[in-house]
Amino acid sequence: MLPCSILAGCGGYLPERVVSNDELARTVDTSDSWIQERTGIRQRHFAARHETSAFMGAAAARAALADAGATPDDVDAIILATSTPDQAFPATALRVQADLGVKRGFGFDLSAACTGFIYGLSVGDALIKARQATGVLVIGSEVYSRILNWQDRGTCVLFGDGAGAVFLRAGADDGPANRRQGILSTHIHAQGTLGDILYVDGAVGQPDKPGHLVMNGREVFRHAVTRLAEAVDEALAANGLARSDVDWLVPHQANRRIIDAMGRKLELPAERVVVTVDRHANTSAASVPLALAEACRDGRIRKGQLVLLEALGGGLTWGSALVRM
Ligand code: COA
After folding, report:
1. Strand pairing partners for 141?
2. Omega into 316 within 30° of 0, i.e. cis?
3. 180-324: same fold as 3-172?
4. pLDDT tens string 131-148
5. Most CB atoms within 10 A, among 35, 71, 166, 213?
6. Counting atoms of ligand 1 from 1, which one is nearest the CA of 30?
7. How confident is the model at residue 266 (pLDDT cuts 50, 70, 90)?
8. Which CATH architecture has domain 3-172?
9. Which of 76, 28, 274, 55 is nearest to 161 (CA)?
10. pLDDT for 210 beyond 80
C-alpha cells in the first residue's frame, strides 16, 4: 500500500514594504482606478534588499513547520518553486535547507512560473508515494519586483513579492478511507509552444542578463479561463467528486476577473473562494500557498474540508490539486 501525503502545515511571508496603487502611480503612468477595475489589485508587497527568495522561503517554511508541529529534523526533501532564485546555483532550496538547519535529505528548485507550487505539490506527493521522502517542504518564493519592466505599465502593476510553504508528511494508507485524506490527486500540464505569450527575456545563461517580464495579457487571459476550467474538471473527475463537494477554491491570484470566473464555474459562493490578489497582487509561485496559509490561519479552512487548488503561468504551464485538509 502507498503512503499518502498529509498537508500537515502551511505558512507564509510577506515583505514589510507595502506599495499602494496610488504610490505606483507616482512613477508609472497608471491609476488606482484602472488597476482595481481590470485586476482587483489594491496594493502589493515589495522586497527590501535582504528579502530574497531564500530569505522569504525560509521564513515561510519555518511558519509551515511550526503550524505542523514539526521541526527541521522531520524534513528530508525541500522543493522550492521560483522564477527568481537567489543564484543560478546552489539551488535556493539548499540555501533554505542550510538556513533551517535541515541536516539530511535533498532539495532542488523547480521552474514552472506561476504554476510552480502546484508542480511542487505534485512532485512532493510523488516522492512520498515512491517512499523517497517522508517529510517534504514545498515552497513558492518570488521577488518579481526585481524582474519587472517599469517602462511597461501593462505588466509592472500586476505583481508583488512573497513566499508561501506547506509541509507534507507521509501518512499510512491503510485502505480506501485513508486514501481520501491528504493530497487526493494533482494534475499538471504544459504547452511549450505558448512560451512567447508570457516570459522573461533573459537569464544568467543569456548574454543580456538578467531580463524582464514580458506578457501578452489578452492571450494569457484567454488561455487562463479555458485551461483552468479544464484542470478543475479533471481534478473532480479523477476523484469521482462533484462541484458541490468542494469546500474551498484556492486559486492562483493573478486577476480578480479570472478568479471570479473560476468561482462561477464551480458554482461556489464568493465567500468560498480565497482571495488575496487585492492585497498581494500576483506573487507567482507564492500566490497559492500564501492564500492557503492565510485562510488556514484565520480559521476559514478547517480540518477535513476539501480544497481545490489551481494555477496557470508562463510556459505555458497550468494545473490543479485536490487536498483533503
Ligand atoms: N494603467 C493604465 N492604463 C493601462 C495600463 C495601466 N497599468 N496598462 C495598460 N493600459 C492601457 C493600455 O495602454 C490600453 O490603452 P489604449 O486602449 O489607449 O491603447 C488599455 O489600457 C487597454 O490595454 P490592454 O492591455 O488591452 O488591457 P486589458 O483589458 O487586456 O487588461 C490585463 C490588461 C493585463 C489586466 C489583462 O489582459 C489581464 O488580466 N490578463 C491576464 C494577465 C494575467 O493573469 N497574467 C498572469 C498570469 S500568471
Report:
1. 163
2. yes
3. yes
4. 999 999 999 999 999 999
5. 166
6. 1
7. confident
8. 3-Layer(aba) Sandwich (3.40)
9. 55
10. no
Residue 109: beta bridge partners?
Answer: 80
Q: Which fold has domain 180-324?
A: Peroxisomal Thiolase; Chain A, domain 1 (3.40.47)
Query: Considering only CA atoms, which residue is closest to atom 47 of ligand 1?
Result: 313
Out of 30, 221, 227, give the residue to mutate to test ligand 1, the one with the largest number of ligand atoms within 8 Å of its CB.
Answer: 221
Position 242 pLDDT exceeds 60? yes
Substitution site in 22, 38, 277 for ligand 1 pocket (most atoms within 8 Å of beta carbon): 38
Q: How far is CA 106 from CA 86, 138, 146, 187, 319, in A?
A: 18, 12, 28, 24, 25
Kindly give the number of the ligand 1 atom that is closest to the alpha carbon of 252.
48
Residue 246 predicted with pLDDT over 60: yes
Is any atom of ligand 1 closer than 6 Å to the C-beta of 217? Answer: yes
Are the C-beta atoms of residues 46 and 15 closer than 8 Å to each other? yes
316 pocket-lining for ligand 1 (C-beta < 6 Å): no
Amino acid found at 275 = V
**What is the reported pTM?**
0.96
Catalytic positions, written as ranges: 114, 252, 282
User: Is there an atom of ligand 1 within 6 Å of 15 CB?
Assistant: no
The mean pLDDT value for 34-49 works out to 97
Cβ–ligand 1 distance for 36 under 6 Å, the answer: no
**Does the beta carbon of 112 sit less than 6 angstroms from any atom of ligand 1?**
no
